[in-house]
Design a protein that fits this description.
Blueprint: H1 4-9, E1 14-18, E2 21-28, E3 33-34, E4 38-41, E5 53-58, E6 68-73, E7 79-83, E8 89-95, E9 98-100, H2 119-122, E10 133-138, E11 145-147, E12 150-152, E13 165-171, E14 178-187, E15 193-202, E16 208-217, E17 223-233, E18 243-245, E19 248-253, H3 256-259, E20 278-284, E21 291-297, E22 304-310, E23 316-323, H4 326-329, E24 330-337, H5 344-349, E25 354-356, E26 361-371, H6 374-388, E27 394-395
Parallel strand pairs: 19-27
Antiparallel strand pairs: 1-2, 2-3, 2-13, 4-5, 5-6, 6-7, 7-8, 8-9, 10-17, 11-12, 13-14, 14-15, 15-16, 16-26, 17-24, 17-25, 18-21, 19-20, 20-23, 21-22, 22-26, 23-24
Length: 403
């Protein structure tokens, strides 16, 4: 157990324990706790066979005033930065010669207080968009539109909702798994009362981490829900002739512009001026238990990222190719979800909107892995090949919907 002097050194976080783990609460609306800056490392916890640090910083200046970031640093593994102010979004992930994330024109960790989601005809979300992974959802998730007289803004509200509860759990037993949890509330009188426990778990000195979310309907009525895990990558993985791979059952262009790129949808261009975004809708194959994966690797196939998920939870996959100039945002998105990025009305018409019952909890689990060498890339390729097997890819040549 942590001694009294250590407990004092990490104050003012609320400290508690459970079996073989220590828990630090950094934010709690229930207990009126809001910690600004906080830090702890493995040596303070009495862990001597590995080293890691966990730190929360409060940012100042410009539109990031008051935003918080939590940084998990493992010198022999990954450094993961996430923001409880921005819906527990992952800002970036780095490791040895590895990076998940991209260079957005938006440089600050923008506090949602400075964002009007309804600006730009419902696309105000873009004024804060620079994350490696941002949750699109949970009331709605796609492109802006009007349904039943109400504005459905771009990609929902979760990514611009500060967490009401934030806690860090550290296992006292090797391999010392670290869990960062935040509670995202989408509660509106007469409308939805969806609450999501958004969790990131990481084992120090490894090159993988897991997102494990629990969505609960606290209302007395069934409610719609949508979720897309908008996962974004650029250099060093994205480059000319980089490759996207996944076991694919069906693929279609999102719109007429994407239709032009259907022949070369799995490969990428170098930064290209006047390249508009191309989006492709994918239905993936899976193994017998529903597990599948998608991956991106560089031209030499010696570096990449894989995303594993279950189609029973997330049956659809969106591929977003935005190989514009580097200043404009050279990036690709791999987005497992319950739906595609069309407006809510189209998703409803085509049967991709799900409902959650009163009191029901639904889980989503995604594992991200940094592929640090050719062997790791080859292993993922083999897995994709084995899932695909002799099953055909259906390529639909025209968009399945028009916005």
């Amino acid at each position: 157990m942590m001694n009294k002097s250590l407990a004092a050194s990490v104050s003012p976080a609320l400290y508690s324990t459970k079996a073989n783990a220590r828990i630090f609460t950094l934010t709690s609306t229930e207990h009126n706790i809001e910690v600004a800056d906080w830090k702890i490392d493995s040596t303070q916890l009495g862990i001597i066979d590995t080293y890691f640090t966990i730190e929360q910083k409060t940012l100042h200046g410009g539109k990031q005033e008051g935003s918080k970031v939590i940084i998990l640093t493992s010198p022999n593994g990954l450094t993961i930065t996430l923001s409880p102010t921005r819906g527990m979004s992952i800002m970036n992930v780095t490791g040895k010669e590895m990076r998940f994330g991209w260079d957005s024109p938006v440089k600050e960790v923008v506090n949602p207080a400075f964002i009007n989601l309804e600006s730009r005809n419902g696309a105000g979300w873009l004024e804060g968009f620079n994350e490696m992974m941002v949750r699109c959802g949970f009331e709605w998730a796609g492109h802006p539109g009007i349904e039943n007289g109400e504005m459905r803004t771009l990609h929902g509200k979760a990514g611009n909702t500060p967490a009401s509860e934030v806690e860090i759990e550290i296992s006292e037993i090797a391999p010392y798994e670290i869990k960062v949890r935040g509670l995202i509330k989408e509660s509106t009188f007469k409308k939805a009362d969806l609450q999501t426990i958004a969790e990131l778990s990481y084992i120090p000195d490894t090159y993988s981490f897991t997102i494990h979310d629990h969505l609960t309907n606290h209302a007395d009525y069934p409610r719609d829900y949508q979720i897309m895990y908008h996962s974004n990558f650029s250099k060093p993985l994205l480059e000319k002739d980089a490759q996207f791979i996944a076991p694919i059952k069906e693929i279609s262009p999102f719109n007429d512009y994407a239709q032009k790129g259907l022949q070369d949808w799995a490969t990428y261009l170098e930064p290209t001026k006047n390249f508009d975004e191309m989006v492709f809708n994918i239905v993936p194959y899976s193994d017998a238990d529903g597990y599948t994966l998608a991956a991106l690797h560089n031209k030499d196939a010696n570096k990449g990222v894989s995303i594993e998920f279950n189609i029973n939870e997330l049956p659809y996959l969106t591929l977003w190719k935005n190989t514009d100039t580097e200043k404009q945002g050279y990036v690709t998105g791999i987005e497992p979800g319950t739906n595609y990025a069309y407006t809510t009305s189209i998703e409803r018409e085509q049967g991709r909107i799900r409902q959650i019952k009163p009191g029901q909890t639904i889980q989503f689990k995604i594992r991200y892995s940094a592929l640090m060498n050719r062997e790791a890339v080859d292993t993922v390729k083999e897995t994709v090949t084995n899932i695909q097997g002799n099953q055909n890819i259906t390529s639909i040549q025209t968009p399945i919907a028009e916005e």
